[in-house]
Write a structure and sequence with these properties.
It is a single chain. The chain is an alpha+beta fold. Helices cover 19% and strands 37% of the residues. The chain folds into two domains: 42 residues; 168 residues, Porin (Beta Barrel). It is built from three helices and 14 strands. The protein has a 14-stranded antiparallel beta barrel. It is globular.
Length: 241
């Protein structure tokens, strides 16, 4: 191909390419036709829906399942105590809203203090396991641990079995090491109740709560209501897991 022929071929190719680009541009300027047009046709406007982002774990509430006040009543219906969420954790109050104990949450650790600001102990959470330690954090007093079958067990600081918390159709049953029934936790008609061996209601709540958390109130070997309630609170925070 001589220089003159090469020049004509190049000019023709550029001219065709330029015409093609004009056609594509014109097509894309037609509203909603091709180039991302709507399947509904016509001149209907295209509405872009905003994307709703789910909060990350770090953005979620640090208090997990503890989203509101949880009130416990005795069997006859009188208020006994309540757990109230706070900016730094929660507090335990009596029927007159007087503070019994305060629970300060820091990551996976709950510091338990009485109304006089004396440290009573700590509840430390890890996946499926909750430990109660003394005020100096150098002695493990109790350990509540979830089993593979959904049951739980409470051991003392020497790993001696104290209670079994067995999963039942109605909720949970608390047995001692000899498998004697001590308490039952039942969820029925929106009410979660702790019942003794004779089926008498000890405490109940109509607030939403993880059923196994209520079982903590029946762990009488932990002979401190603030510590039992702190353990319960930690399970509520972790949605009973």
């Amino acid at each position: 191909m001589n220089q003159s022929s090469r020049f004509r071929f190049t000019s023709q190719w550029k001219s065709q390419a330029w015409q093609l680009s004009l056609l594509c541009g014109a097509a894309c300027m037609v509203p909603l036709a091709g180039c991302g047009g709507s399947d509904h046709g016509g001149d209907a406007p295209v509405t872009v829906q905003p994307t709703t982002q789910r909060p990350t774990d770090s953005e979620s509430s640090a208090k997990g399942g503890l989203t509101g006040k949880i009130k416990f009543k005795a069997g006859q219906g009188d208020t006994e105590f309540s757990v109230k969420p706070q900016d730094d954790g929660a507090k335990l109050v009596d029927s007159d809203e007087q503070e019994i104990a305060r629970f300060n949450l820091s990551d996976s650790k709950l510091k338990v203090k009485d109304a006089d600001d004396t440290v009573l102990g700590y509840v430390i959470a890890s996946p499926g396991k909750y430990k109660i330690k003394n005020s100096a954090q150098d002695v493990e007093l109790w350990q509540l641990q979830r089993q593979d079958d959904g049951d739980w067990k409470l051991e003392d600081g020497q790993e001696k079995l104290i209670y079994k918390i067995k999963k039942r159709e109605y909720g949970f049953e608390i047995e001692d090491a000899a498998e004697k029934s001590m308490f039952k936790v039942k969820l029925k008609d929106g009410k979660t109740s702790l019942r003794d061996a004779s089926e008498q209601t000890v405490f109940y709540t109509k607030d939403e709560i993880a059923t196994v958390a209520v079982a903590c109130l029946g762990l009488e070997a932990v002979d401190s209501l603030p510590l039992r309630t702190a353990l319960m609170t930690m399970l509520i925070i972790h949605d009973g897991r």
